[in-house]
Amino acid sequence: MRRAGAGPLLLLSAALAAGQARAAGEPPLAAVTLVGGAETVFSAMRDACDGDDVPDAPARAFRDAEGGIVMFGLHTKNRALRGPDFARLRIDCTPAMPSKGDPDPAAYDDASWIAATWTEDGRRVEALVHHEYQANTHPGRCSRKEYLACWYNTVVAVSSRDGGRSFDRPEPPKVVAAAPFRQEVGQGRHRGFFNPSNIFGQGRSRYFLSSTTGWAGQEGGACLFRTSDPSDPSSWRAFDGTGFSLRFGDPYRDGAGTKPCRTIWPFPAPVGSVVRHRPSGAWIAVFQASANADLFPEAGFYTTSSRDLLTWDKPRLLLAGRTLYDDPCTSGGRLISYPSLIDPEAEGRNFDDVGASAQLYYATLRVDGCQITSDRDLQRRRVAIQVWP
User: Fold this and answer.
1) Which of 3, 126, 278, 279 has its CA 20 to 30 A from that of 44?
2) What is the number of domains present in the chain?
3) What domain of life is recorded for the organism (predicted)?
């Protein structure tokens, strides 16, 4: 997540990129194809309650207990879009979970984005929060001045009992994924777990993917987490290469895990969303990538598919365009970011399944010179989905 006016999002080191550039496997299992023009769902310049309402995370939606749609994906006041259906979403100006800018890193309440939601009944909602401790904004907390050099990320859990209208921060905080060291360690680069995907399910299991820049012994990339009970944040476990055994706890209280999770190829950066194709059971992921000489000939949004969430096929370009992972000075005035796939006809309350078509939700961001501005739109485009036997 980025604030307006911040510099380029250079999350990936050369080592991370090299580690992800593995040989591609079988031909793609699925094809996702754009078949419709762009529609504006939310415009920050037109629809915002105030300057904090900008698209700044992938769109996450669920059906509430009355059958209405609730969608998150804005900035750190975490206001929701609500409506009777996807065509009539409007912003709710009451913040669901405002960030407090707390200078204590152990409070995990500096800058927070609701990044994933899960509900069984539309009333109680579990959420994963992308938390940024921005040490450069707190005097004496960072040896550097730059945002990225002081950026320490953690995934924490919160919950709502009123259909996502408000979220309670538990005390002590419930840490789902943290680096095995505190924020003052390793300053000079972006550190931690960040940008969780949506929560998606199969049977009794629930999953999400979270990115990490890695540390000594831990490769950078995306790690897969699983639980059978999202209401218990301590039950999330990361995949270690053979099973889901790793707990990445709170380094300020109970210690974080030190064994590495296995990163999942081919994701070079945060995963926008993962959905299950209803007719075939195949999984489809969408994400953004900058161009490189290996898997990504053009910058833009890519899709990949899998039968088991562990082995994914060669990424396919869905929408070309400069993204937040590219230099905004060469953007041509506009960037795209934060892709997610949502099927309005999904069978599940959490929109983690798709049929023969879906909507690609994403943000467009206007660039002024080299600065990313608050002039942002949440857009959607219809896609067709085909999966081969």
Assistant:
1) 126
2) 1
3) Bacteria
Query: Per this entry, what is the length of the chain?
Result: 389
Which of 109-137 are b and which e, b meaning 16 or more Cβ less than 10 Å from the residue's Cβ?
Answer: bbbbbbbbbbbeebebbbbbbbbbbbbbe
pLDDT along the chain (389 residues), means of 10: 42 35 59 96 97 96 98 98 98 98 98 98 98 98 95 98 97 96 96 98 97 96 98 97 95 84 95 97 97 93 97 96 94 96 97 98 97 97 95
CA atoms within 13 A on the CB side of 288: 27
DSSP state of 24: P
pLDDT at residue 293 in the model:
87
Report how far apart, in Å, the C-alpha atoms of 237 and of each of 209, 225, 359 are: 11, 5, 30
Verdict on whether the full-model pTM lies above 0.90: yes
Task: Give whole-number Cα distances, 174 to 1, 246, 282, 362, in Å.
Answer: 21, 16, 32, 29
Q: What secondary structure letter does DSSP report for 15? A: H
Residue 50 is assigned to a structural domain of this protein: yes
Token readout for 163 is 């259909």
Q: Dihedral sign for Cα 333, 338, 344, 345, please.
A: positive
76 belongs to a structural domain: yes
Q: Which residues of 221-231 are buried (b: 16+ CB within 10 A; e: fewer)?
A: bbbbbbbeebe
What's the pLDDT at 294?
85
CATH of residue 298's domain is: 2.115.10
pLDDT at 27 (0 to 100): 65
Whether 84 is covered by a domain: the verdict is: yes
AA letter at 359: Q
Tell me the residue range of the domain where 317 lies: 30-387
pLDDT at 231: 97
Residue 323 lies inside a defined structural domain of this protein: yes
Tokens of 353: 């399944």
